[in-house]
Structure formats: C-alpha cells, structure tokens
Amino acid sequence: MTSSGTLPLETDKRLAKCPKLRVLVVGKSGAGKSSLINHVFGIKQQVTVVSHNAPGICNIEDEITSPDNRHLVLHDSMGFEPGQDANLKKAINFLRARSAENVAIQDQVHVVWLCIKIPHAGGRVLETGDEEFIQFALDKNVPLIVVFTQFDKLQTRIEQELTEAEMELSDCEAIVAQRSEKKFVEICDIPLRKSQPLLPYVRTSVGICMDEGALKSLVHTTRDKVENRVWFVTTVAQRRSPRDKVDGSIEYVIGIPGYWRGLASTTKLFGSTLENCLRTIHFEITASWNFNDPDEFLASEAFKQRIYSLIQFLVPEDKEIRSWFDDVDRFQTLIGIGTTITAAAGPVLVAIGLSKMFVEWIASRYVQTPEALRCLMAYICDLTLIMDHLFLETLDLPPPRHLTQAHIDSAVESYQKSSAWKVHNELRMYANSMTFAQIVQSNRAEEKVQEIIDLYCSK
Q: Can you give the residue ranges of the G domain (predicted)?
C-alpha cells in the first residue's frame, strides 16, 4: 500500500526502522499464553513458524509470525520447572544475544511477558528459575511484565466455596469479586512485591470471562515500558485498546511530523494538490491503526470518497454553499435546519453525493486559505474518529477479526449520527476565528485537532 501524496510518509519512516514488535513470551504449558496473544494482537492460533519440534515443545529461536498482523513477531519459551535448568539457560542466552548493544533494534527483544498461572493458596508465585530470569532481564534493561493468568479460575474457586445462604444473596457476585481480589493480593501481589517491589504486573482472564479491562491494562503497561524508539510499533501492533490507537495516531501521525508547522510556508506542499495531501494523510492514519484488512477496503477509492462526502460541506463559506451543491435546498428542507447546512451531518448529507465544485477544488494546487485549513483538519478528525468507531465495531469479534464492508458502513454511519456535525461546527468556528497564518504559526491547528479527537473518541 503506497501513497501518491507529497508529504513525507512518517508512518513508513518510523516502521522502516522497526517494523515489528518483538515479544518474548515465557510460561509453562497451560498458562494461557496463546489465548492472551490472540486477544491482544488480534491473531488466530494458527501462526507461521518453521519448526520441527514435537507437539508441546517450542524452540525459543523460532520467529513466530501471523499473516493477520504483520507488525508482530513472537518468541515462545517454555517455563522454568524446578530442578530443570535447560529452559532457563536457553532463555537467558537468547535474551543476552537479543539485547547486546550491537544488535539492530528490529532484532532486539522489545518486551518480555512472563506468564504465570495464579496459584492455589500455598503455591509459589515465582519459582527460583523465574526469579533468576527476571533479575537477568532487569540487569539487561529489557522491559519485563509479569502476567498473572486465569484470574477467572480463581473467581470460580471462590464461588464454589460460597455457602448456600451466601449464594441466595442479591450481592452474591460482589462477594465473589471482593473475596477474589483479597485472595489475589494474598497469594500473588504480596509475595511478588516482597521479591520484586517495582516489577509491573497485570492479571488477566482470557477464557469465557475475558477481562477486557485487564487486556487494555496489559497494552498500556507494555506501551509504557518499551523504549521510545519502539513505542509506535507497539501501538500499531496491539489490537485491544482503542485509546492507545488514538494516542498513537495523535502522537506520531498528527503531532510529531509537524504537518501544521510545514503549512506555514509553501515549501512543504509546493506544487502539490489538496487531493494528494489528503491521500497522504489518509495513508498515515489508516496505516497506524493496523486493521486486519486483507481486501484493502480502507485504501479503496470508495472509502476515501466517503470521507470526502463528509468534509465537503465544511470547505466553502456559508454564503457559498448553495453554489457548490445543486440540491442543497432540498436537503436543507429535508433535515430542517433553516438557512445553513453546516450545523448538521448524517446519512442524508452523504446521500447528496460529491459536489463537482469540491472535486475540482481538491484537484487544484494547495494554497494557504481558511478553506484549505478546514479541509485538512476535518479530514484528520473525521478519519481518526471513524477509525475509532471501526475499532469498537470489530473489538468483540473473535481473532483474527477481518474487516468487512459491513463493518466500515456501520462505523461511518455511527460517526455521522453521533458526533460528525459537532466536530464540523467546532472546526468551522475555530478556522474562522483568526487568519490562516496566525493559526498555523502558533501550532494551534495541531492542538485543536488533538483537542477535538480527545473530546469525541471512545474513552
């Protein structure tokens, strides 16, 4: 997928340095590693790996990849059984080789997930091998997160211990939740804190009672622990937290590239058409969300034109709108908004189709005007927020969650009905409040885009 725009492709530039997040997953068989990975990264269990090992035996050197998520590579290490040092030595040697200073960033281990089944009362949380491996990783400054798995099974055990009287109570579920929390602190949190007081951990349930909040917490913790240079690919690879996707889009697509600072002079966009600018922005944003889109619906001209259909009403001044659209009076009457069309957006607006004036306008050479500013700001806001709606549309689907046209249709319609008109109103009032040069030179356009996206995205 390429862009024909003239703006530098910041997403390509950043992913060229490190195109995949490399995760070392450590844990005994049955710890729930596969289920955890499938849900966080949106891949199915059938991963691609060249290995001749017997079933249940993994080779830590194998690169495990999936066509469902091209920004992820996994390494699987078996757990460290008491009295058996072979797996521990392999894991330490692997981590030593993958954390050396002369190893290219894309070949380094970026984060380790140490998966531990929540033990029964009296069981050890960390085996001796776990403690030795953790210390080695910390000494090598490799981010390591303990992932306590199968919290749902602990809850089931607690539920089974309820008396008949307790099971009849209306707050039975609250009792189970409270006791499960207390037991977890007793058998996991306190022992871990005594051994490693600063080590981050997350507890998860990825069975029938999948804990959505826990999976998002794991994504947040992983993002916060990895080095800045792989922060972006971490955000791109994960498919569990829409908030992290929005943050990544804002931070690395909207903010850091400095689109708006570049607009202060004609150098950056000299000779470029607005359409090419929009195509580049479209590529940047959709690539950063990393949907499983084998049919490339998001890159299609049809999808781009749907975004055009939304933003075209924001481009002309109020007094010029009628001259841009042949049937605008009919649609104004239909949606009942009186003299202006800018206060509404929805399926009925898209039904009007693309205006010939708009098509000709975006095909013209870029110039510094309030209309151009509104167009660029609206495209970024609309597309990012539609991506947010689309993420929510597919979040509850089982991996690998392939995008369909129906998902996109539903996301676009949801955005149109919920907040598109509010977003456009804010953008029009903002762009009309001062001159183009004042807005761009103060970086306020960039800040306003971030403010609007933060306000209307999912929390």
A: 22-149
Please list the helix, strand and coil fractions of the chain in percent, rounded to the nearest 5, in that order: 55, 10, 35
- Tokens 């970024």 belong to residue: 380
- Token digits for 161? 């211990």
Structure tokens, 96: 């030593």
Asked whether the beta carbons of 32 and 117 are under 8 A apart, the reply is yes
| Residue labelled with tokens 């992932």 | 147
User: Which residue in this structure is represented by tokens 């600063």?
Assistant: 198
pTM across the whole model: 0.87
Tokens representing 368 are: 């510094």
Q: Name the residue among 268, 269, 221, 264 with its Cα closest to residue 241.
A: 221
**119 exposed, middle or buried (CB, 10 Å; 0-12, 13-18, 19+)?**
middle
Rounded distance between C-alpha atoms, residue 258 and residue 276, angstroms: 17
Peptide bond between residue 400 and the one before it cis (omega within 30 degrees of 0): yes
Q: Which of 295, 288, 242, 246 is nearest to 402 (CA)?
A: 295
Question: What is the rounded CA–CA span in Å between residue 269 and residue 278?
Answer: 12
DSSP notation for 107-144: GS--EEEEEEEPPPTTS-SS-HHHHHHHHHHHHTT--E
Token match 């005994």: residue?
28
Tens-digit pLDDT profile for residues 311-326 = 988 888 777 777 787 6
pLDDT in tens, 227-241: 888 989 999 999 999
